[in-house]
Amino acid sequence: MTLAAVVGHHPPVTRCLVIASVSLTVGCALDLLSPTTLLLSWQLVIYELQLWRLVTCFLFFGPFGLPFLWNIAVLVHYCSSLEGISFQRKTADFLWMLICGAGMLLALSYFFGNMYFVSSSMIELMTYVWGRKNSNARMQVFFFVVRAPYLPWVLAGISALMGGGVQDHLLGIAVGHVYYFFEDIYPVLPTSKGFRLFRTPKLLKKVCNQRD
Predict the structure, then answer these.
(1) CB–CB of 125/74 below 8 Å?
(2) Residue at 79 is within a domain
(3) Alpha-carbon gap, residue 178 to 13, rounded angstroms
(4) Strand, coil or helix: 115
(5) What's the pLDDT tens digit per position in 136-161?
(6) How many domains does the chain have?
(7) Which residues are bridge partners to 144 per DSSP?
(8) In sequence order, what E strands does 111-175 have?
(9) DSSP secondary structure string, 55-106?
C-alpha cells in the first residue's frame, strides 16, 4: 500500500503536508538528502538564496523513531480534523492560516536565532486553533482526558518528557493564539468594525476554487 493510498481520504492540504514530511524523512534515511540541507539557516537563506529552507524547516520531523511517529500522528489527526471540519470547504482560508502562521514563526525564529526546524511549532499552532474552535471537545490522551483548549499544553509536556524542547511548542501556541484572536474574536468586537487582520486574499480563493 502506497503512502498516497494511506492518506488519500484526508483533505488536500493535510495530504500534501504528510506526504512531503514522510518523503523528506525517507530521503534522509536513504542518504538521498541530509538534514543539514533542510534546516533553517538565515545566513544561507539571505546570502546564498537557499530559499527552500523556509519551507523544509516546517516539514522535517527528524529521523524515523518514536518522536517522528508521534508528530506525524498528531499532524494527521488534528490537521485533518481542522481542515475537514472547522475549515470545511474553505481550503484557501486554511492554507492562508498556515502561510500566515509560518510567516510569524519565521519572524520569531529570526530573532531567537536558534530554531533550526519549526515543524513542532506548526503542529502546536494547528492544535491550538483546533482546540479553540472545538472548545467543548474532550480528548483521550493516553490514560487521561483533557479538554480541547488545553491539548497544546499537554502535547508540549509530552514532547518534553520524550526529550524534546519546549520553546518551539510555546512559540506555536503563541502564534496560534494571535491568529485565533484576530480571526475569531477581534472581528466580532464593536470596536473592530469588521476588520480582519488575516483576511484571505481573493487570488488564493480563486486558485483554490473557494466560494465566499
Answers:
(1) no
(2) yes
(3) 22
(4) coil
(5) 878 777 777 888 888 888 878 877 77
(6) 1
(7) 141
(8) 138-141, 144-147
(9) HHTTT---SSSHHHHHHHHHIIIIIHHIIIIITTT-HHHHHHHHHHHHHHHH
Q: What is the pTM of this model?
A: 0.86
The pLDDT, as a whole number, for residue 8 is 56
Domain assignment of residue 191, yes or no? yes
Asked if residue 24 belongs to a domain, the reply is: no
Can you tell me whether residue 159 is helix, strand or coil? Answer: helix
* Residue 50 backbone zone (phi > 0: left; psi -120 to 50: alpha; other: beta): beta
Please give the residue range of the domain that contains residue 191.
Answer: 64-207
Rounded distance, CA 166 to CA 153, Å?
Answer: 10
Set of cell numbers at residue 44: 544561507
Distance CA 31, CA 118 (A): 22
User: One-letter amino acid identity for 1?
Assistant: M
- Has residue 107 been placed in a domain? yes
Neighbour-count burial of 159, counting CB atoms closer than 10 A to its CB (0-12 exposed, 13-18 middle, 19+ buried): buried
